[in-house]
Specification:
The protein has 360 residues and is α/β, with parallel strands linked by helices. The protein has nine helices and 14 strands. It has helices at residues 16-24, 44-61, 75-87, 100-109, 226-231, 241-256, 259-280, 305-317, 342-358; strands at residues 5-6, 67-72, 92-97, 114-120, 144-147, 149-150, 155-156, 168-171, 188-192, 203-208, 285-286, 297-301, 320-321, 332-335.
Length: 360
């Protein structure tokens, strides 16, 4: 059976070359006589895998030496708790709420301290990024938190907020490795890998070393202390070994593609094809303010729920899957992460044009 074009928001498609390498190495990794799935996380084999993955990620993102890279479990929902537990010294944090995930992060952080919502785009269903050039940043805020790219609503911070000297913390789950990042702009950035990097089950935290504290409250679980994980080289307990291995293959693929500058060009080309069509279409409309559009997640609607449903059904039958929009937005959403080839977007647009012609 031919592979489909998978527009899922996550878990999402992986580069075909990565899947083929993983398949070839499934039964015997580099002459070890076993699969990475069967390997002890204490073995030299796996130590080499995780060390190489970290080295490649550091190279790709140009991560400075004074930042730790942690390969963790627990997903975003766990980071929503771990971040305030580890970073709240004064018990205060400022959150910019531009979507569901930043909202959930803020709600979780309220369990551990005072949370101030210093900006929000909830008034227009998170269809834009608010002006963050002069926010009422709290004097005693331990950090300012953003979700850099909003998977559900298709918005992105094209300009970082002015945090007035406070540490910036960012969830970069849905646009990590899609373009260059200046890591030093952040005290901490983290991402679940299941959108643009690897299979579900791995969460990566990149944190400046001076933010890794030993003087945490008694209630902070051992497993949620960044110091626990940093001191153990992400091997305090059994990590998601196979997921980390696949992430490492993706890091090597990104390098082979020319790194993050090349990925940005590749992603801008793809997004332009789809946005140009949406801007010219009489049937389909994008839902996001143009200046705040994501390169990764593109929501669109017809304005007619029945027509939306018909489109999703026919698109699925034609090999374009997972295009149904999130329930809070409705309509459709095409997630066009790094692994989505340009021809996938071109063929989707051709299908949309044909559907529009047939359903006027």
């Amino acid at each position: 059976m031919a592979r489909i074009y998978n527009f899922s928001a996550g878990p999402s498609m992986l580069p075909e070359t990565v899947l083929r390498t993983a398949a070839e190495e499934m039964l015997d990794y580099h002459g070890s006589g076993m699969s990475v799935m069967e390997m002890s996380h204490r073995s030299k084999w796996f130590q080499d895998i995780i060390d190489q993955a970290e080295a490649d990620l550091r190279e790709i993102m140009n991560i400075p030496d004074n930042y730790k890279v942690l390969f963790l479990q627990g997903g975003g929902n766990q980071q929503f708790a771990a971040i305030p537990m580890n970073l709240m010294k004064n018990g205060v944090a400022d959150y910019i709420v531009t979507g569901q995930w930043a909202k959930k992060a803020a709600q979780e952080a309220e369990k551990y301290g005072k949370v101030n919502i210093v900006a929000s785009s909830a008034d227009k269903t998170f269809s834009y990024i608010p002006d963050c050039s002069d926010l009422p940043i709290s004097e005693d805020a331990d950090y300012v938190y953003i979700c850099h790219n909003n998977t559900i609503y298709g918005t992105k911070f094209n300009k970082l907020p002015n945090t007035k000297g406070k540490i910036l913390v960012a969830d970069m789950s849905s646009d990590i490795l899609s373009e260059p990042v200046n890591v030093e702009d952040y005290g901490l950035l983290w991402f679940g890998v299941q959108k643009n990097v690897g299979p579900a089950g791995v969460t990566v935290v990149v944190i400046r070393e001076d933010l890794i504290r030993d003087d945490l409250p008694e209630f902070v679980p051992t497993m949620l202390k960044y110091k626990t994980q940093a001191d153990a080289g992400s091997l305090y307990n059994t990590p998601p070994c196979y997921g980390i291995y696949v992430c490492g293959l993706v890091f090597q693929w990104v390098k082979s593609m020319g790194g993050l500058e090349a990925m940005k060009i590749h992603n801008e080309k793809k997004a332009k094809i789809l946005y140009d069509y949406l801007d010219s279409s009489k049937m389909f409309k994008g839902t996001v303010v143009k200046k705040d559009r994501s390169l990764m997640n593109v929501p669109f609607v017809t304005g007619d729920a029945d027509l939306d449903a018909k489109f999703v059904k026919e698109a699925t039958a034609a090999g374009f899957t997972n295009l149904k929009g999130h329930r809070t937005v409705g309509g459709m959403r095409a997630s066009i992460y790094n692994a989505m080839p340009i021809e996938g977007v071109q063929k989707l647009v051709e299908f949309m044009a044909e559907f529009e012609k047939n359903n006027q």
